[in-house]
Amino acid sequence: MEIIVNEHAFTGTGLSRLLDWQSYEYVAVTCKKCGYTEFYNKAILGDERNAVKILDLIFGS
Fold it and tell me: What InterPro entries does UniProt report for this protein, alphabetically (predicted)?
């Protein structure tokens, strides 16, 4: 299975949107074959090294 992994950051509402403070960070994993995409919260995954390990376990890449 071939996948694409991208990082995305989003603003919240109110003051964070006004200041363009991107307080929400996610990792998007997309299947190259069908285009199905899942988003994972980076705060839950932990640091970047752990996120890659978890994604490797899930997708076996």
Answer: DUF2082_NA-bd_Znr (IPR018652)
